[in-house]
From TrEMBL:
The keyword Transferase applies. It comes from Kitasatospora viridis. Keywords: Aminotransferase, Pyridoxal phosphate, Transferase. Pathway: Amine and polyamine biosynthesis; ectoine biosynthesis; L-ectoine from L-aspartate 4-semialdehyde: step 1/3. Its EC number is 2.6.1.76. This is Diaminobutyrate--2-oxoglutarate transaminase.
């Protein structure tokens, strides 16, 4: 039946499908980091629901929370009425957030996906400031609905027309393919100065915007961490000009980068945070959390039918608690350092690895043509065809990885935070073998 399922899916479903669905496997069971196909083959899952599965597949604590809620007779769908499950989730979430941000913050439950929370954030800041434009960054990714897409950078790849208001795109300080041909601290400083000058230049063509939106580590953009100093500069520049700062932690949140929330590395306090993916414990959930002074909405100003599902809240609260109680952010930091360290070693041996980067368990391996002309920062041309071959070679060796980045030439590793040392070793071995085989 697996063959038939794959055939029917290919015929019936949109050709735009992506991620694991483009893999020729029909998963029937999953546990932790392991996915089992209908043919009995087992795979280590380094995609983990695009970073959703902080605790891996079917974690017993998450399953128990879902079962308990199901058996309790609690209403599963109640629009946005008050429930004990929502109360518990909200309390747990606020307790997990940095205190300077969470103290007095408002929580808005959004339609089930990350992109819905991004739309809500952009719209809220337009209401709160009475302005329209948004500042966003090259390489950013915020979702697929009109407003979220408009503030994403890689629109050409997504074959979409950006719409949703005036967006000023600013350079993200990507050390490897660096803007202005300047890497390191010099590049970071120039990127910040450019932003500041553009905003202050009366002929810069930028009206005072409603918000700035950024990721502290770009995910779909290819696991690109922003330097902490640059993030602090963005916070200073926006604060001085009264521009609300929205940090999109849809992918970075819940321990993935080695801190519970990625903003904690730099210590910046945003005006709003957009959260989804892991906060639902593998079920769909998205929230916008913001400082109370931006609460400019009247009742009914921003509604939606599926705003916070009871099961997702129970699964999410259990996940947030488990990550905190078991120090999984520290674990992500430790295993992340081990993986990036080993991959950097591998880079010495395999010149098709142009760059290894990331933070915690949000890791990118950029594949390049080693014979190609280096750019001003020394980066070789990306090799997306090789990346596709490596992804296939990984799958043949029982490893699920996805691609991302500007040229779709970055292998993205987003394993569950519960990955064991043994599994981390196996990921490295399979990845090294796959890259070697594909590059041959
Ligand atoms: N923001 C970021 C940073 C993301 O990584 C994603 C999804 N990859 C989104 C927003 C959109 O989330 P969703 O796919 O759930 O709409």
């Amino acid at each position: 039946p697996a063959e038939a399922i794959l055939r029917r899916q290919r015929v019936r479903e949109s050709a735009a499908r992506t991620y694991a669905r483009s893999f020729p496997i029909v998963p029937v069971r999953a546990s932790g980091m392991t996915v089992e196909g209908a043919d009995g083959r087992r795979y280590l899952d380094c995609l983990a629901g695009a970073g959703t599965l902080a605790l891996g597949h079917n974690h017993p604590v998450v399953l128990a929370a879902i079962r308990r809620t199901l058996d309790s007779g609690a209403p599963l769908h109640l629009l946005d009425l008050a429930t004990a499950e929502k109360d518990d989730f909200t309390t747990t979430l606020l307790e997990s957030l940095p205190a300077e941000f969470a103290d007095g913050a408002r929580v808005h439950f959004c339609g089930p996906a990350g992109t819905d929370a991004v739309e809500a954030a952009l719209k809220l800041m337009q209401t709160a400031t009475g302005r329209r434009g948004t500042l966003a960054f090259t390489g950013g990714y915020h979702g697929m609905t009109a407003g979220a897409l408009a503030v994403s950078g890689n629109v050409a790849v997504k074959e979409a027309l950006p719409s949703g208001g005036e967006v000023t795109r600013l350079p993200y300080p990507f050390a490897y393919r660096c803007p202005f041909g300047l890497g390191g601290e010099a590049g970071e400083r120039v990127a910040a100065r450019y932003t500041e000058r553009l905003l202050d230049d009366p002929a810069g063509g930028v009206l005072p915007p409603a918000a700035m939106i950024l990721e502290a580590v770009q995910g779909e953009g290819g696991a690109v961490p922003a330097p902490d100093g640059w993030l602090r500069e963005m916070r200073r520049i926006t604060a001085e000009r009264g521009i609300p700062l929205i940090v999109d932690e849809v992918q970075t949140g819940v321990g993935r980068t080695g801190a519970m929330w990625a903003v904690q590395h730099s210590g910046i306090v945003p005006d709003a945070m957009v959260l989804s993916k892991a906060i639902g414990g593998s079920l769909p959930l998205a929230v916008l959390v913001y400082r109370p002074q931006f609460d400019g909405w009247r009742p009914g100003a921003h509604t939606g039918t599926f705003r916070g599902n009871t099961l997702a809240m129970a699964a999410g609260a259990a996940t947030l608690r488990y990550v905190a109680e078991h120090g999984l952010a520290d674990r992500a930091d430790r295993v992340g350092r081990f993986l990036t360290g080993e991959l950097t070693q591998l880079q010495q041996r395999l010149p098709v690895i142009g760059d290894v980067r990331g933070r915690g368990l949000m890791i990118g391996v950029e594949l390049v043509d080693p014979a190609g002309e280096p750019d001003a920062c020394g980066a070789r041309p990306a090799d997306p065809a090789l990346a596709v071959r490596v992804r296939e070679a990984c799958l043949a060796r029982g490893l699920i990885v996805e691609l991302g980045g500007r040229h779709d030439a970055v292998l993205r590793l987003l394993p569950p935070l519960t990955i064991t040392d043994e599994q981390a070793r196996a990921v490295l071995d399979r990845l090294a073998e796959a890259i070697e085989a594909a590059a041959r």
